[in-house]
Structure prediction request, 125 residues.
Amino acid sequence: MARAAERLAAERLADERLMDWLCDAHDMEKQAETFLQFLADRIDFPALKEELSRHCELTRNQAGRILASFIFNHIKRMEVAAYAMLIAAADDVGDGETAKVCGEILAEEQAMASRVGKRLPPMLA
Prediction:
């Protein structure tokens, strides 16, 4: 149990770090979008204005993709961690049936996360 708790704590720390970085990346893209739009609205060179507008749209899309990734990762990790903890708790009290049911649900959650994760980038491209 101690090793499992240590592993979960390490995974949680890594997950939190990833979520922080995804938030930072989203904020960066939103700031870039604001700046690019500001420039595009004020520049008098049509070719540059068009390029800035195109880059602004790309940046907006990137921010949306990062946000979707953040939400998906957060939900996936939360559910997987919850079922892993339920399995460990059930094992600790000798409740094999609950551990079995939670193990089945955990496998379903992981399979769903894998399927969605494989489709997520093309859906957002």
